[in-house]
């Protein structure tokens, strides 16, 4: 069960094995500001962090009075240590670059956040990296039929289109 715990009661684990550079903390804080604190911190029965040091640091920079936590009071101290290491280890994985590019095509404002990753990939060419250069044209139609015909004509010409009703 998720509980709101006073920030002052939450304690970082002194031997935390992951580093959280200030740039990362800023990004996490920005995410919390934009979308809310959607992933709780996991703490032991003494409120020592098991998982979520980055979120904790970001919450502090936002001056949050409380933070959502899961209290893992069912774990032994040894299990807490194991979970701490394995949680970080299991979060390390490769990206599916094709899927990432497809997602970023619809979210070009986030592309800069992934530039370093995209530039390292052998699967990405210059066209993919210029995806933030999207230009839009709005065509006003007098009725639904005209809108559908215009849309279909543009699709046939290989334009990426979407329908909007204003």
Brief rundown of the structure:
The protein has helices at 22-35, 53-61, 77-90, 97-106, 115-120, 126-129, 144-156; strands at residues 2-6, 41-43, 49-51, 66-71. With 166 residues, the chain is α+β, with helices and mostly antiparallel strands.
Descriptive account of the structure:
The chain is α+β, with helices and mostly antiparallel strands and 166 residues long. It folds into three domains: 2-90, Conserved hypothetical protein from pyrococcus furiosus pfu- 392566-001, ParB domain, CATH 3.90.1530; 94-134, no CATH class; 135-166. Helices cover 42% and strands 10% of the residues. The protein has seven helices and four strands. The chain has helices at residues 22-35, 53-61, 77-90, 97-106, 115-120, 126-129, 144-156, and strands at residues 2-6, 41-43, 49-51, 66-71. It has a four-stranded mixed β-sheet. Strand 2 (41-43) and strand 3 form a beta hairpin. Helix 1 packs across helix 2. The longest helix has 14 residues, at 22-35. The protein is elongated.
Broad structural category: alpha+beta
How many separate helices?
Answer: 7
Uncertain runs are none
CATH superfamily of the largest domain: Conserved hypothetical protein from pyrococcus furiosus pfu- 392566-001, ParB domain
- The mean pLDDT is 86
* Secondary structure tally: strands: 4
Using only CA atoms, what is the Rg? Answer: 23 Å
Q: Biggest sheet, in brief? A: 4 strands, mixed
